[in-house]
Amino acid sequence: MAAIEMLPRLRERYRLDFVIVNGENAAGGFGITEQILEELLDAGADVVTTGNHVWDQREALVFIERYDQLLRPLNFPPGTPGKGCGLFKARNGQEVLVINAMGRVFMNDLDCPFRAVDSELEACGLARGADAIFLDFHAEATSEKEAMGHFIDGRASCMVGTHTHVPTADHQILDGGTAYISDAGMCGDYNSVLGMEKEEPISRFLSRIPSSRFGPARGEATVCGVALETDDATGLARRFAPVRLGGRLARAEPEFWLSE
Amino acid sequence: MAAIEMLPRLRERYRLDFVIVNGENAAGGFGITEQILEELLDAGADVVTTGNHVWDQREALVFIERYDQLLRPLNFPPGTPGKGCGLFKARNGQEVLVINAMGRVFMNDLDCPFRAVDSELEACGLARGADAIFLDFHAEATSEKEAMGHFIDGRASCMVGTHTHVPTADHQILDGGTAYISDAGMCGDYNSVLGMEKEEPISRFLSRIPSSRFGPARGEATVCGVALETDDATGLARRFAPVRLGGRLARAEPEFWLSE
Amino acid sequence: MAAIEMLPRLRERYRLDFVIVNGENAAGGFGITEQILEELLDAGADVVTTGNHVWDQREALVFIERYDQLLRPLNFPPGTPGKGCGLFKARNGQEVLVINAMGRVFMNDLDCPFRAVDSELEACGLARGADAIFLDFHAEATSEKEAMGHFIDGRASCMVGTHTHVPTADHQILDGGTAYISDAGMCGDYNSVLGMEKEEPISRFLSRIPSSRFGPARGEATVCGVALETDDATGLARRFAPVRLGGRLARAEPEFWLSE
Amino acid sequence: MAAIEMLPRLRERYRLDFVIVNGENAAGGFGITEQILEELLDAGADVVTTGNHVWDQREALVFIERYDQLLRPLNFPPGTPGKGCGLFKARNGQEVLVINAMGRVFMNDLDCPFRAVDSELEACGLARGADAIFLDFHAEATSEKEAMGHFIDGRASCMVGTHTHVPTADHQILDGGTAYISDAGMCGDYNSVLGMEKEEPISRFLSRIPSSRFGPARGEATVCGVALETDDATGLARRFAPVRLGGRLARAEPEFWLSE
Ligand SMILES: [Fe+2]
Ligand SMILES: [Fe+2]
Ligand SMILES: [Fe+2]
Ligand SMILES: [Fe+2]
Ligand SMILES: [Fe+2]
Ligand SMILES: [Fe+2]
Ligand SMILES: [Fe+2]
Ligand SMILES: [Fe+2]
């Protein structure tokens, strides 16, 4: 997997203190296995977030209980295996609160993600237990994503949207100091439909009949993500930039780290 | 409106031969009036495309019949006022086929956009009636947008997705020569929810109750779009780049036009 | 309104101890006004339940605080005006717990109705505070309705589904003793689309364009509902039958009350 | 399967000239096999209609081409195997046009069912090629079903809705002479969720996690359907009544046939 191969180099190149990877499609597009989780952690991920595909590999319902570093959406029903947020120690010694929540618009029927996130931010805030706070908001609609960004603006270091598999170009630091991007995109081949070989998805749109299984596209991957630097005093965002390396998309790097 | 103010300067700065604007939210976020359409055309738009909000101002049902330059989605039901595509003369004398279609995933119940677009491309193809072909695919889901892009790859100059109001960073020229971007984004204030003041949308997500009307956010606008250069012989894409000017988003310009 | 005219006669004819009316479309199809609520209460309703249309008349957001007898769905967000359940005294002196909840499948994004209802049933159960318990589950999908029925079977006297505006013929007493019907239907003219004049809805399905407002169909109404008799000792259902009177639908009456 | 066992007796008891069965869930809840289709035809079905589950058993994509009596929704994409309507000879010698169409509200993305049905009715109408015309409209929303009923009122003998698996009690002959019911219900055990054992569906609503497969409920089935008598001269409906036999639902029979 592209992210696994690239991570060690990226950690070194950018001297990263903390790395978060969304792994909901890590197993050939469908969920995550324990082995892949181990590989991601070995490659340098500190936390692996997920989304609607988290249980595609049913073993995840079991092994998630053994890995604090694996999160599933916070607003899943009470009693769901695993946890939706956690406090983690970064390499620089800072405490990082990572929250994984899921949107409802055009998605599953879940309890309110706004209230769920709010409740975590009340329990552990910037300069009140956490040196940095990161939200992976796994959602479809840009309206819900932007609303969530503004909802937590000033209370978290960063919100990164996921789920559409396409990076957006609206990265910005909101007025309250929270870095925001609607979608980080996927790590995969962008000559595809959502990272999967394009023939079968196109065929289904035309015929409404599945004719074969979805398989991951095998072209060169683009590793997509964001680079964030937080203020040590406030925990808010100082610098924020997209990362897009390899494959077909326009290259993007956090220049501010390279020039130093 | 930001696009209207900026267009004359952009036409000159980039020496544009043909300009397409999506105007479905031109009237304060809801549809388009005849007056605004006139202003857009005066400012230099050659064609104005739309989407699900096209009839928000009901007068559009009437005046669309008088303006060839105003398109509504092609796959609206037979009998719908207006047209979904047209052949237009560019300033350089080329014939440009512009198609406006709408997706179905998480959208309205419409007839198949793939078949509708296919039928237009069969009737008038590159080097068979059109020097360039442009599709505004107004859709929500990235899966449907990417599938459409690949579906017309090699048969059109460019597909630009619209509707999410957020620009994507996946602009590329597909293998067959068709320029593609999942979403062009909106022209408006990105300190907002979809261009609207953020308080009311946030409040509705939390309370599920409308408490006031949506109003457009009044901060500085970012004009978002794409720049396309086609090959005179084939009509396929030669160069393709995002444009983001003003406001809060990271500036992007088609360097290839400025350096010449 | 048909229900208002008919209620006094029905109370007398069947010697009813307690009457519940869903009033979400009482105001010409859209919500409920204080005046109509008063009329319903005067006509003999003990409790008025609602659903997704509850706030169509915005005054309801205010006056609901003054009427214990008006319920809105229980699983609306915390902070929503009004209440989702209440304990009411029947004419025979019994305490009746009435719960109003709303489904999520094909409906609004709300918190889990199963957990919300469960929590009320835990707080006040049959023979533990309530002599009878009635749930109006306002939902679209028969899957969610049937699942809710079985979920509360043995813990409530009755679940009546609402929202589709069409009575179902699946009334039964479930194995645990809870009376169940997927939908009670509406009180209105069944020569219509959901009680509204049929021309505009048909036109919208064909054209996808609103051409006029919806207005209620004015033909003779069928009053639709159910008749329930509970066991004084257990609070569970003893007899359960549909009621359909007047208008175009096949007449149905609770024979067991008339023969006594 | 309940319908297969019951059909021969029903054909005789009511002296039926023509029998239509919806078989989309005939194979343990998921689609239909060739063997089950054969059994249905042997048991006395003249035509078997389907719906969104038609291809659950993939063999149906192949064998449907060999059976004129098996219909899939008319408004599936062009090129879909099988047909959406057909003209069949009844035992009394009359020509019966049977149409199977599928709704779009809360269902799949398909082309307009209203236009598709209209086109068939234009091609072959009552007293213009067909002695009777029957539409199985497989749809979720009562709004779309009622709109379709009125849309074809006077042009078909009967529209029966299917898909919710719950019979409705709104059977009537519309003003133009077309018999109408929103849903015929299923043939199966009504101590269930849509005919499936109830534990797993309830569990999924609560946990949002599949924990086992759906299996059909094994209690006594109720055979649900409708009885229609058409006018020989006009092809319109003369008498129309629900049929519900066996199992947990209130028994219903077409009295008009028994008293003769
Ligand atoms: Fe994903
Ligand atoms: Fe996802
Ligand atoms: Fe828009
Ligand atoms: Fe739109
Ligand atoms: Fe209603
Ligand atoms: Fe409703
Ligand atoms: Fe179905
Ligand atoms: Fe079915």
Automatic annotation (TrEMBL), chains A, B, C, D:
<dbReference type="GO" id="GO:0004113">
    <property type="term" value="F:2',3'-cyclic-nucleotide 3'-phosphodiesterase activity"/>
</dbReference>
<dbReference type="InterPro" id="IPR029052">
    <property type="entry name" value="Metallo-depent_PP-like"/>
</dbReference>
<feature type="active site" description="Proton donor">
    <location>
        <position position="53"/>
    </location>
</feature>
<dbReference type="Pfam" id="PF13277">
    <property type="entry name" value="YmdB"/>
</dbReference>
<dbReference type="InterPro" id="IPR005235">
    <property type="entry name" value="YmdB-like"/>
</dbReference>
<protein>
    <recommendedName>
        <fullName>Calcineurin-like phosphoesterase</fullName>
    </recommendedName>
</protein>
